[in-house]
Each structure stands twice: as structure tokens, then as C-alpha cells.
Design goal:
Keywords (chains A, B): DNA damage, DNA recombination, DNA repair, Metal-binding, Zinc, Zinc-finger
Function (chains A, B): May play a role in DNA repair. It seems to be involved in an RecBC-independent recombinational process of DNA repair. It may act with RecF and RecO.
Family (chains A, B): Belongs to the RecR family.
Radius of gyration of chain A: 22 Å
Shape of chain A: globular
Strand order of the largest sheet of chain A: 4-3-5-6
CATH class of the largest domain in chain A: Alpha Beta
Number of domains of chain A: 2
Protein name (chains A, B): Recombination protein RecR
Number of strands of chain A: 6
Oligomer: homodimer
GO molecular function, one term (chains A, B): zinc ion binding
Chain lengths: 199, 199
């Protein structure tokens, strides 16, 4: 047994299965933690335990929270008339870091996919449509990935909301800030050119 | 608060300070764990807690273990006459994965460094010399990094053992297995040429 004890080996194996980590980086992290076993390692264990027991999905929007309704859904300062639809909680966090959107969210938890047999019911699209009908929503922003599945899902939701009077919008497509044309794919350049605007 | 709860933010911050991780990879790992909070996350917390409370340094060699003396030091099948001196526990693990060495180890926990004021006492070099005198050691293999500090430390130990009758060896230097000459640094090629051997 090379790595100290059975628990250490199990810990390295478990760490090595986390996204972005492998056996080598997991060993490095575990050794680092063992060196700091009174401080960082005990703290990490306690936090993981607390987050594992207290985290749940917000009943309204699907965001990760430690209450029944998340901090965004219960914030009276945020506009109730705008819902931003995202694929994952990671996308919600990314938008929140931008501090640009001041409405509410709706997390789908995935995209429609014929191949993986994921239909509208699996994504909470019916609950989104219910919510829009109930809460007097004026605008739905479909902030979905610019991938085939993301855009298929956006089109499906836009179709489902047709005739309800709700404004449905999507994120602008174009050159990313700081992007160099030379390094961009042809699709992005074409989309940016089509959507050109007057300066 | 973008990321769910205070605990989630603290967990991301703590994870992001681990070697090789940053805020982005930490967020990705934490979200992955929250999705698997009943299984992987609870398991990880329990293992971290167990390793943090049970790990300690082997009293003889400095290896990480969950007992007073490590599995290597107490293994009767391993030669007692050979000590392999390594800088860190990570190096011991790397050698053990090679399955080539069947003796005992001695972990220094660093290298001599005038700049960082690390002297022989800080590295357990006196305890290594005591151990060699006490345990009838025939060979000491200095498996230290091929860096300036590593080689300085190796020379210091070799000098300290002069006249004791112990054979002191070092790892061979040369072309790594699978290495292409074109991509090797000049120092390695020169060392490999100097240490050339008859085929």
C-alpha cells in the first residue's frame, strides 16, 4: 500500500473523480490537505458536510439555496415581471456575477434532447409556463447556451409562449468583449455581422 | 449573494485555494458535489474528517500513516539494510508506485536552503544519521530532486556519512523513458552522455 492508509487511498480515488481532477492532481491536493490537517482539512470536511445537508433546490426557480425559497426569489428589490431562463445553476451564478440582471430566474436543469430522451416535462417547462401565467410576467429572457440543444430548447419555449402576450427575448450573439476576429469561428463572425448595429 | 448560501461561497473559496485549483474550477467542483450531495459529497466529507483525525507522521521514517509506525517500516518482508532518502512523502509514494525499491525510507520534509534558513536539524538529518548508526544500514540511496537544493542536500548527507562505511548512492541521471532527445534540455543530454553505458 503506497499511499499511507486505506482511507487516504479512498480519498485520493474520490477526489480524482471530481470534474477537472485526475489521480495526479488528487494526490497533490490530498498531500497538501494532510499537511494542513488541523486547519484547512477539518474546515473543508465541516463545510462539505454542512453544504451537503443544507442545500436544496429553490421551490420557485430551481436555484441552489439553503432555504425553501432562494435569496433571489425572496428579494423584494428584484423585478418580479422578468424571468431569465437558464440551463444550469452554474449559468445563473455566471449571470449574477455580471450584476446586470435584476429580475428572477428559472433553472431548467438541462436542455431538450431527443437523443437522451429529455422532454419538456423533464425540464420543468410546464412549471415555467404555469409561473408565467400566474405571476404576470412581462418578459422572458432565454439565456440558453448558443449550442444546437440550447437553441432548440429556446425555440420550443418561445413557441409555447406564443399568443400569451409575453415578450420573449434571447441573449445577443456577437464578438465577445476582448475577442480578436482572427481567433473567432466563422459562425460567430457571420452572426456578429448580420446583427451589426449603428455606432 | 450569487452562489446559493454563505457556506457554499466559503466552500468555493476554500476549494479554490487548493493546489492546482482556482475560483472557476472550484465552482465547477462544488456544483458537481451539490448535485451529488447525498452520495459523493457526504462520502468526501466523512473521508476528509477521518483522514484529518487519523493521519500522522511515522515515528521512524516520516511517511504519512494512520499508526505510530507506517506499513513500510513494519513490513518484515522489506530489507532493513537499505534506506532511501526522499524530500517529500509525495516522492515516497512515487517510488512505491514503481515497485522497484524493497527497503525502508527516510522522509526529510524539505531540502537544505540557505535562503529559507533551513538547516540539517530542520530536516531530520541528525535523526537519519542516528538511524543509520543504530540499524546496521549498508546502503543509503539519496533519491532527491535533480535541482540545485536537492543536490546540495544530497552532497551534505553524503559528506556527513563519510567514514561510517555505509555505501551512499544516488539516482542515475539520463534520458527519461520515452524521452525524445530533441525535446530534452542540454544539461540532461550532457549528463546522459557522460554516464553512457556499454550495451
Amino acid at each position: 500500500m503506497a499511499e499511507g492508509s486505506d482511507d487516504i487511498q479512498a480519498l485520493i480515488a474520490l477526489m480524482g473523480r471530481l470534474p477537472g481532477l485526475g489521480p495526479r492532481s488528487a494526490r497533490r491536493i490530498v498531500l497538501h490537505l494532510i499537511r494542513k490537517r488541523q486547519g484547512q482539512m477539518a474546515q473543508l470536511s465541516a463545510l462539505l458536510d454542512s453544504v451537503a445537508s443544507n442545500s436544496r433546490e429553490c421551490l420557485t426557480c430551481g436555484n441552489i439555496t439553503d432555504r425553501d425559497d432562494c435569496a433571489i426569489c425572496t428579494d423584494p428589490a428584484r423585478a418580479t415581471g422578468e424571468i431569465c431562463v437558464v440551463q444550469d445553476v452554474a449559468d445563473l451564478w455566471a449571470l449574477e456575477r455580471g450584476h446586470a440582471f435584476k429580475g428572477r430566474y428559472h433553472v431548467l436543469g438541462g436542455t431538450l434532447s431527443a437523443l437522451d430522451e429529455i422532454g419538456p416535462e423533464d425540464l420543468g417547462i410546464p412549471s415555467l409556463i404555469d409561473r408565467i401565467a400566474r405571476d404576470r410576467i412581462s418578459e422572458v429572457i432565454l439565456a440558453l447556451n448558443a449550442t444546437v440543444d440550447g437553441q432548440t430548447t429556446a425555440h420550443y419555449i418561445a413557441d409555447a409562449l406564443e399568443g400569451t402576450g409575453v415578450t420573449v427575448t434571447g441573449l445577443a450573439q456577437g464578438v465577445p468583449i476582448g475577442g480578436e476576429l482572427d481567433y473567432l469561428d466563422d459562425g460567430t463572425i457571420t452572426a456578429a455581422l448580420r446583427a451589426r448595429r449603428r455606432l
